[in-house]
Amino acid sequence: MRETVFLRLNQARWQQYEATPPTGPDELARRYVELTDDLSYARTFYPDSATTSYLNGLTGKLHQALYKNKKQETNRLGHFWRHELPQVLIRHHRVLLGTLAFFVLATFIGALSAARDETFVRVVLGDNYVNQTLANIDKGDPMAIYKGEEETVMFLQITLNNVKVALYAFAGGITAGLLTLVMLFKNGVMLGSFQYFFYQKGVLLPSVLTIWIHGTLEISAIVLAGGAGAVMAQSLLFPGTYSRRDSLRRGARDGMKLVLSLVPIFVVAGFLEGFVTRHTEMPLYASLSIIGVSAAFILGYFVVYPWWLHRQRPAA
Known about the structure:
Layout: H1 3-19, H2 25-45, H3 50-67, H4 76-91, H5 93-116, H6 120-125, H7 127-138, H8 151-171, H9 178-200, H10 204-237, H11 244-261, H12 263-276, H13 284-312
């Protein structure tokens, strides 16, 4: 590309790096990697330009900060949750929002399909599940299916399955996102048809108050895992000024950070489904409290906190 285009795409970022100090060692390392990539590109295509000289000086300053001051952070894990992961969420917020929109669309398609064809739910959920649930509805306990297995076994099976689904959704990014989209679509259609089935049988409210005790965390984490796969797919398809290999490596690193952060969420969701959801006689306030706290955590940490942190940075 022309040097003027290269400058227009990157100059604001370089100036920001000059004006604002990095928030920690990981941010410093990330800036250094980006600038060395930019410098390598400039040396290749504009070897004698002022742009190359400027990048050489800026990269040299970061090199000194990185290698002459190697203080280890005392709380690496704390830094990850306070700074690294929120920065990943902000950096890829458009991709994550698109992932959510796709999942909502798939959920709507599932509900619409179930509304137009009563047999569709059986195709998606299976005859055994539907027949057992119908029998439970007749008995006056529509959510009794969650009482059918021993708590600890159910907790372990559900948690391991959800982690596996999340890893597959992330790894699907290497297929240019096709496998990720298939998994999101499948889960969205299942959710939509599942909820419409209970609406059709007149027990939507009991189903919501029961299922979303664990589903608030579980479904949110599945969507975020799909977002991690979409981040890797975007880096593969649209490398920008980076080589495709370097872009994919950066996208895979960010996606892996996101998907690993979901493991404790899946553990909590599995615990709720294995030990709490089965108590269908739970008081209304208890169900609403668990659902509300779960929703507040997801929105607070994965949406509000990253934006707040991002807005604080220019003043630093």
